[in-house]
Amino acid sequence: MTNTDLRDFLRTRRSIRRFKPDPIPDSVIRDILHTATFAPSAHNRQPWRFIVMINPVTKSHFADLMADEFQRDLEKDNLPPEEIQKRLTRSRERITGAPIVILLCVDMTEMDTYPDTRRKKAEYIIATQSAANAGMQLLLAAHAEGLGGVWVCSPVFAQETVQSALNISKTWEPQAMFLLGYPVEIPVVRERKSVDEISIFLD
Ligand SMILES: Cc1cc2nc3c(=O)[nH]c(=O)nc-3n(C[C@H](O)[C@H](O)[C@H](O)COP(=O)(O)O)c2cc1C
Known about the structure:
- It contains seven helices and four strands; from the N terminus they run H-H-E-H-H-E-H-E-H-E-H.
- It is of the alpha+beta class.
- It has a four-stranded antiparallel sheet with strand order 1-2-4-3, with helices on both faces.
């Protein structure tokens, strides 16, 4: 692969939200997870954890619980009932329509501990940054396999619900989920801010 190929590869990853029903071989899923673990992490503690959901019954149960929590939040926002139902249906369908759902968690148990709030907060931030690196690497690894995926942030808004729904350790804090599958279509590139808009080059 040339530099240009690699640059094009990085620039052609898109968030994919509609998938073919085709199953993804287990070996491919394991390979993607393995590649994700090559992401850099603070102190190389690798605080990322993954929960893989393939079984339609598990995904459907998970989708229902996420929708319940989402509904409570939307009701607090006083949205009209039909708008709430529309969003809940879309949320459920997106989860159940993805051949694979991978939940990304962060586990603080092997990170450094500090007595003061400032450093505790900083350590938590670097752990979640590390987990996010693995998430990004996972999406790129999926892209390399011809799969599409999207990062979905809802689990971070429903951490306890997700932990009890999936019966996972309280030390695994949900951060995101990835919906993965073979893409139905590749969306057009969403506009990017220019380098000049987002950067300052100091003398
Ligand atoms: C932290 C994070 C949270 C995101 N959450 C969602 C989400 O909840 N739902 C969704 O459809 N896309 C979500 N996305 C995907 C973004 O919408 C997408 O990356 C952005 O629009 C740029 O499009 P592209 O990925 O195709 O380049 C998220 C992306 C990131 C990095």
